[in-house]
Amino acid sequence: MKKNTIYPEWDAPYFTGIATMKIYCFPWCKGQPKLENTIQFKSRAEAEQKGYRPCKNCCSGLPHGSWEDNKQEVTLFVPKEFSFAENLKYLSNAPNECLFHIKDKRVYKAIPIEQETPVVEISADYENVMTIRFLGGTTPSRKWVRAAIARYVRDWFDLDTDLVPFYDLAKTDILLQKAVDEFHGLRNVGIPDLFEAICWGIIGQQINLTFAYTLKRRLVENFGRHVECKGERYWIFPSPHNIAALTVEDLAVLRMTVKKCEYLIGVAQLMVEGKLTKERLLDAGDYKKAEKMLTKIRGIGPWTANYVLMRCLRIPSAFPIDDVGLHNAIKYLRGMENKPTKEEILQLSATWTNWESYATFYLWRSLY
Ligand SMILES: [Zn+2]
């Protein structure tokens, strides 16, 4: 059958069908409704025979031919417009980062997938590939968990965006031409986890980056969990469940403003209730509607909303136009005496349509 030959790597122990929508999901899809509205299939083939379509959240996440599963190691095939070294330089600029670490040109991180928490080493010693190696006996025994890890890392490094059109438009752009040359192959390294992305956006409001990293570390070390692997400790960001039940007093150890504590708890509660999910934002229809869904939430203004849409949902036209870093980059690159006005930014970015988020990312990069 066509589908089995195209997607042999997509085996999962079962698939969940959503009767009302006639779609089926992998067990690890986060957009699934309550159990009573679902039926189970033994295979994709069975689901498709019954007229079910694959869910776009979980089934289309890993392009065919984009990875190879070798059990202890997973190989990701990367596009030509990708430089591991450039992305590593970007990641190295977060000296107090607590959710991954870098050593000898390798990135180390624990990535939780359902009940498993494999620890991975990500490297790129060979051309056109990135290697994910599972450390210290944490190799997931199930193939779909390894697939989910591959999907996470592809998403983290934004490997599935074709940068050619962006580079074409940037060639003649007065703000971007130097940056795309200098940082060729840099990707919008993101924050795949929605709760983490929103928390990071809220934590960072009105404080400098160094202090933001300190606050994040306190949050993670007080309310997250960790795994030990080969003598190293790997921290995992708290889940919405961890934070939703807390009070502002519980969060006092962070020494963060009361308002920010309230915002984090409020967002966690919305996520626990299922009112705020990545899928809901992606299904909003368009960028403006997704932005509105976010800005309705207490603590999320236009900057935070666009930051999240850019770093987590990878909406190409997300544009944190009020961003101080963006203003500084423009001021510096244009040799301006004062920061640009909103009108000036709109004028300078007029040709960036659908690449606003990448343009912002590259301009941020040109600041250090
Ligand atoms: Zn799904």
Brief digest:
By secondary structure, the chain is of the alpha+beta class. It is built from 16 helices and twelve strands. It folds into four domains: 8-54, DNA Methylphosphotriester Repair Domain, CATH 3.40.10.10; 67-160, DNA-3-methyladenine glycosylase AlkA, N-terminal domain (TATA-Binding Protein), CATH 3.30.310.20; 161-190 and 314-368, Orthogonal Bundle (Endonuclease Iii, domain 2), CATH 1.10.1670.40; 194-286, Endonuclease III, domain 1, CATH 1.10.340.30.
Topology diagram in text:
Layout: H1 2-6, E1 15-18, E2 23-25, E3 38-41, H2 44-49, E4 53-54, E5 67-70, E6 73-77, H3 84-92, E7 101-103, E8 106-110, E9 119-123, E10 129-134, H4 143-156, H5 164-170, H6 177-182, H7 194-203, H8 209-223, E11 225-229, E12 232-236, H9 240-244, H10 258-272, H11 278-282, H12 287-295, H13 302-311, H14 324-333, H15 342-348, H16 356-365
Parallel strand pairs: 2-4
Antiparallel strand pairs: 1-2, 1-3, 5-6, 6-10, 7-8, 8-9, 9-10, 11-12
This protein binds zinc ion (ZN).
Structure description:
The strands form three sheets. A six-stranded antiparallel β-sheet has the order 5-6-10-9-8-7, covered by helices on one side. Helices cover 39% and strands 14% of the residues. The protein starts with a helix and ends with a helix. It has four domains: 8-54, DNA Methylphosphotriester Repair Domain; 67-160, TATA-Binding Protein (2-Layer Sandwich), CATH 3.30.310; 161-190 and 314-368, Endonuclease Iii, domain 2; 194-286, Hypothetical protein, domain 2 (Endonuclease III, domain 1, Orthogonal Bundle). With 368 residues, it is of the alpha+beta class. Bound molecules: zinc ion. Zinc ion is lined by residues 25, 29, 31, 55, 57-58.
